[in-house]
Amino acid sequence: MIYDSVLETVGNTPIVRLKGFVGDRPGTILCKLEYLSPGLSKKDRVAIRMIEDAERSGKLSKGQPVVEVTSGNMGIGLAIACRLKGYPFVAVISRGNSVERVKMMRAFGAEIVMVDQDPGAQKGKISRRDIELVELAAEEMVARLGAYRADQFANPSNPEVWSTDVAAEIATQLDGPVDAFADFMGTGGCFWGLSAALKRLYPSIRCYGVEPYEAPYYTKTSESLRGTHSLQGGGYSRAIRFFDEDYGKTVDGFVRVTDDEAVEAARELAAKDCVFGGFSSGANAAAAMKLLGSELAGKTVLIVAPDSGTKYLSTSLWDLPEGGSADG
Length: 328
Ligand SMILES: Cc1ncc(COP(=O)(O)O)c(C=O)c1O
What we know:
By secondary structure, the protein is α/β, with parallel strands linked by helices. The protein has helices spanning 19-22, 43-57, 73-85, 99-107, 128-145, 157-173, 189-201, 241-245, 259-273, 279-292; strands at 15-17, 28-33, 66-69, 89-94, 111-115, 148-149, 180-184, 206-212, 253-257, 300-305.
């Protein structure tokens, strides 16, 4: 089959059993490889849905610029969708994110507005204040250009693509019900959309939000914490809009994952199953493993690998000891 453009190739990502990663521990982790997409992340699906819904509703008119705040992956998805559909695209991004994603957006013809991090912030660690600064810059751009703001944090097209297309895909791929789903949350679109749909499909499934250990928002704790983390793509320590609207209906619990646990898991996924994901793939796998090690021993947990490890080659994620691998 010949496709008219890469837009038509988005979706239908495979699910693999993480046999090497789980080893002889009791239970199964199934991982949907969302990085197998033209922009190398799960956000390609969301980007196309947001643009097509905006076209249908008349919120986006022919040739109108599109602006989005992004840690990179949504920007890459939108850069692709906008390039192929004829909209100029401006991505507003914090300087704290990895350079690979910025370079990819530029390659797809996007204009990039880089926003300085809060003084005192660390590169690679995006704080709540950094996100606020990026938001302010985006509002200015929208006003200046008369642009359409895709707004992944509030746009219902984001969770909808998960609760419709992706859930349907998963239902056809699985042999039967899974026991749990765990997902590291940024906008919460993937968690909320998929957990809502999976609960309709498999009523006894348990759904867990994954949060950075050092910067949780929903997990209540009295520990004194750093408040920052390295897990690019989520964990913004602020209320997730989609999530809160349905709070209590789709979430059965939270799992906290440290930076080190996510990094170690990402490296093990690569070394043992040749699944090459980023920090959040590691966070999801580490969370699933924690669940198998406690309340879900012997059960099956579904996760996604949100983006490709190639997007973090410049970071410490892949600074492996020479000649060594994750299992030494
Ligand atoms: C790499 C990565 N992981 C996880 C997430 C979180 O996904 P969601 O926004 O659906 O919660 C994102 C979102 O941008 C991401 O880019």
